[in-house]
Amino acid sequence: MEKRRCHWCSSDPLYIDYHDQEWGVPVHDDTVLFEFLLLESFQAGLSWITILKKREHFRKAFDNFDYQHIALYDNDKKEVLLQNPGIIRNKLKVNSAVTNAQNFIKVQQEFGSFDSYIWGFVNNKPIKNHWKYYEDCPATTPLSDAISKDLKKRGFKFVGSTIVYAFMQAIGMVNDHEVNCFKY
């Protein structure tokens, strides 16, 4: 018998693997948290499958999501990124990756880790929702609004409430698997 998955999970093997192995699984490693923050910010206005298909190109282009390194990118490196057909070539998003890396480090310095900061919003305990249909899941919540507002106050870019909520789902801060999904 085939596993039941959330309805958004298409037949694409990349999507299935992401759904089964990553989406909604709590992440506490700062490098992986930065990876998802960067990928979600580039996803703005696009489909997640587009980003997943380009993920390895992003990994290579952005030095394995090494935020310490990305924080030091100069204009020459940004120009190289804007010429890379393997990633989303959007100047504002490329600039935001550098700005966000710099601010990510500032948050680490203030809280000890980005993990402590971000998971503090949920008292280190994932929120488990009970959606029968994924379509019932909101795009934003009062919590994603609050996190977005705080990130923006700290200088982060491309962190609107919808992006933040998708980030929360990706890193397992919120479990939005449908109740009939085997990952629920």
UniProtKB/TrEMBL annotation:
Enzyme Commission (EC) number: 3.2.2.20
GO molecular function: DNA-3-methyladenine glycosylase activity; metal ion binding
Upper taxonomic lineage: Bacteria, Pseudomonadati, Bacteroidota, Flavobacteriia, Flavobacteriales
Lipid biosynthesis as UniProt keyword: no
Gene Ontology BP terms: base-excision repair
Keyword terms, alphabetized: DNA damage, DNA repair, Hydrolase, Metal-binding, Zinc
InterPro entries: Adenine_glyco, DNA_glycosylase, Tag
Protein function: Hydrolysis of the deoxyribose N-glycosidic bond to excise 3-methyladenine from the damaged DNA polymer formed by alkylation lesions.
Top-rank taxon: Bacteria
Protein name: DNA-3-methyladenine glycosylase I
Enzyme kind, highest EC tier: hydrolase
Binding locations of Zn(2+): C6, H19, H177, C181
PANTHER family from the UniProt entry: DNA GLYCOSYLASE SUPERFAMILY PROTEIN, OS04G0501200 PROTEIN
Catalyzed reactions: Hydrolysis of alkylated DNA, releasing 3-methyladenine
Organism for this UniProt entry: Aquimarina intermedia
